[in-house]
Fold:
Amino acid sequence: MKQLINNHKPWLILLVLFMLVYPFIVGHSGYMVSIFVMICIYAISAMSLDLLIGYGGQISIGHAGFLSIGGYTVAILTSKLGLPFLLTLPLAGVVTGIIGLFIGLPAVRLSGHFLAVVTLGFGLSIPQIALNWDSLTGGYSGLSLMRPSFLSSDLQFFYVIVVMTVLITWLLHNILKSRMGRAFLAIRESEVAAQATGINVPFYKTVMFVISSFFTGLAGGLYGYWIGFVSPNDFTVVTSFLLLGMIVVGGLASIPGAVIGAIIFTVLPELTRSFVGVTNIIIGLAVVLIILFRPHGLISLFDAFKAKSKRKAGNDQDLLISEQEQGGTVKDVNI
Amino acid sequence: MQIIVSGLIFGCIYALAALGLVLIFKTTEVANFAHGEMAMLTTFVSYVFLTSYGFPYLVSLVLALLFATIFGLFVYFVFMKRVQSAPHLNQVVLTLGLFMVFNGVAGIIWGYQPSSFPEAFHGDPYEIGGVFISLNEIFVVILTLILMLGFFLLFRFTRLGLAMRAASQDTMASELMGIKVSGVFMGAWAIGTALGGIGGMMTAPVTFLSPNMMSEVLILAFAGAVLGGFISLPGAVFGGLIIGVIENLISYYIAPELKIVFVFLLILIVLYIRPQGIFGGAKIIKKV
Structure:
């Protein structure tokens, strides 16, 4: 196991280094930096959603609603109340977390399709409310917000987002490795068995929603500050579907999987932007093909590769541990 | 009263879309998010028959339903058969992927410009007890009721219905009992898609024909199906009708823009009190 961590560490350091020097590699191209920022924002959201679906077994197809709330929270707090950046960004997470609590409460009683429809309704409702609550959200025209002066340049804010992404990834990783993460896994595998072993199922289900929406709200807040403008059309139900696609295509119950999914689903639409109307077909086809031919997501490619090299070394025991450590394979999500 | 009646007619359209959804789910346990887009493609095909070939309405309806049947089989064989035993989330995401593909394909072939679609019956609206209702609307209501009753009886009293229920409960055991499960699934996909097609053709005169016409209908149909318990055909129709009426009442008395918010608030409340839906039957936890 120690070997495994040691094997991972250089890669992680390389990845973080790459993120730090990325703007210089692409020569400060605003477009490329912007794509990278969107990958970070979607990666945070996808990881949060993965905590809920992949690890906790609770479906949500309205996660874009939380992103919207996060964006609007920072916009409203900055433009109407004039609160400073250091306060608004955490508040974006807190407000979204409170709303996640309200969504999580009925989720305690619901499962499967019923939960799917409730969350779908939530995802549909948020843009509608934003559109019609003119006095607070500015309706169609949206709200614009200014970044604080010490973060005014895109490069400075790029590093804020990178640091936040790394921090949130680390936090989520630790939450999932903790006692709480094991409780989530137990609930996913069997609610009855989890209850029988003394896990407070309703409590942990609600906590799951709160944590997931908190981090998604932070991502929404970062988005608001990056673009400098929020509108009802930023995150629609299609975004929720894309988030769902990200975690399934990347690989459920796997943080690297969620990141891979976020990268694919941010870059693909950009690559196909020049062919109008083809974007949907290509994204759809990518999802369909990956589900048909790699049902455990792209991350399973790495696992297959690892298994091969491990088998050569004649060390199957290690693999078994590592797989359990990653939360096992998802047998079935309760939908 | 007029509001309630026109709500009921909208409800029938949701119910028609929900019927196919529930039929496919009840048999194959797949929640088909691409259902609306498949219905939309079927409607476009019937539109092509109507305008390019000049067939009468009934002929193009039958031809389009034939297309829907083949289309449903195609989707089943090419995509859904391979993931029949995969995790449910994979199935859902696969149908979402198909949703995007079909939507894009229709957009490329027919464009996003909405065009009008004829009704089944023309004629001035009748006035019954102070309520105006047109011949076409009566047709929609009667069609919905007949289809609901027909499929309810099919499920309850025929061998095929029994096979469908058995296949959904335990695929392997019913296969061992001599039921041709793949045949049953084929039937469910073919009939379900055709039902969706009927729903699409009833929707198109109201919303106009465009690649995005079914998205809102499908979401509300899904909501209606869930309200009814998702496994009950009368429940799907009943749920669809409730949604239609509530939606119309809210647009009239509160705010037309916020109808979707209130509809989902209502669903949330209903499901909080009765988590298995109105017609869902007793809640059983299968796996331990």
Summary: Chain A touches chain B through 50 residues (CB under 8 Å).
